[in-house]
Amino acid sequence: MIVIGLIAGMLAKWVMPGPDPGGVIITILVGIAGAFVGGFIVQSLFGGPEITRISLGAILIATLGAIVLLAIYRLITRRAV
User: Fold this and answer.
1) Where, by residue number, does the polypeptide cross the bilayer (predicted)?
2) Taking the chain (81 residues) in consecutive chunks of 10 residues, what is each chunk's mean pLDDT?
3) Distance of CA 78 to the CA centre of its chain
4) Dist CA 31 CA 34 (whole Å)
5) Which residues contact 5 (CB under 8 A, 6 or more apart)?
6) How far is CA 52 from CA 14, 18, 19, 68, in A?
7) 49/28 Cα distance (integer angstroms)
8) Phi/psi at 16 (nearest 5 deg)?
């Protein structure tokens, strides 16, 4: 899960570059949380299979979730300023 989180967090930061705080640890945490969010989206909304192993599909789903989390974070912090 940590490996998928690291890869997904890095891909999400690559897709959505910006002045987000945090280094490698925060990137991993965003990726792991993104894996849960992406898995929930795929399973709940689209009826997709449960992801239980490292695969390209798992990384893409986790990256999707991490991008969603980064977008939400940026919306929240933009309004606070």
Assistant:
1) 21-42, 54-76
2) 80 80 72 81 75 79 85 76 53
3) 19
4) 5
5) 28, 29, 30, 31, 32, 33, 34, 35, 62
6) 25, 31, 32, 21
7) 24
8) -120, 70
